[in-house]
């Protein structure tokens, strides 16, 4: 699952993940992500921007961690927020990893693969 409000970043992430065989759930804002989390089965990994319309990424992290179905889903924050306090806040909220923008696509893919395979080796939804 990708939660990203920037269309260009979303397109690049979708392209990269689809080339690796992942099925993508794309949410353009916090409201869409919130609705998906409430109504759908958990995915194998979430790539999440913190700065989103309607509901911020910190709230979404807490929602997933409080959900029985989504509690163990690896969350990789991919954010424009680069301050140490934001990184610490994201990790303390329950994110498994934190990558700042601009980012290295190869490094991000390696992190996604590591978290997705550790969580559910048989699943390939992102």
3D structure, described in words:
The chain contains five helices and five strands. It is α/β, with parallel strands linked by helices. The protein has helices at residues 7-19, 30-39, 57-66, 84-93, 105-119; strands at residues 2-3, 26-27, 46-48, 75-79, 97-100. A five-stranded parallel sheet has the order 2-1-3-4-5, sandwiched between helices. The protein has one domain: Response regulator (Rossmann fold). The termini are close together. α2 (30-39) runs parallel beside α3 (57-66).
Percent helix, as a range, is 40-55%
CATH level 1 name: Alpha Beta
Average residue pLDDT: 93
Low-confidence stretches: none
Distance between the termini: 4 Å
Task: Estimate the global geometry from the Cα principal axes.
Answer: globular
Q: For the largest beta sheet, what order do the strands appear in spatially? A: 2-1-3-4-5
Give the beta-strand count: 5
Rg, alpha carbons: 13 Å
**CATH fold node name:** Rossmann fold
Largest sheet: 5 strands, parallel
């Amino acid at each position: 699952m990708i939660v990203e409000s920037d269309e260009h970043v979303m397109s690049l992430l979708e392209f990269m993940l689809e080339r690796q065989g992942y099925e993508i759930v794309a949410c353009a804002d916090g409201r869409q992500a919130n609705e998906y989390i409430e109504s759908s089965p958990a995915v194998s990994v979430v790539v999440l921007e913190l700065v989103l319309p309607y509901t911020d990424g910190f709230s979404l992290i807490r929602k997933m961690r409080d959900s029985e179905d989504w509690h163990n889903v690896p969350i990789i924050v991919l954010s424009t927020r680069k301050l140490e306090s934001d990184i610490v806040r994201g990790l303390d909220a329950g994110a498994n990893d934190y990558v700042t923008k601009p980012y290295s696509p190869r490094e991000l893919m390696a992190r996604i693969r590591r978290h997705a395979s550790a969580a559910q080796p048989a699943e390939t939804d992102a």
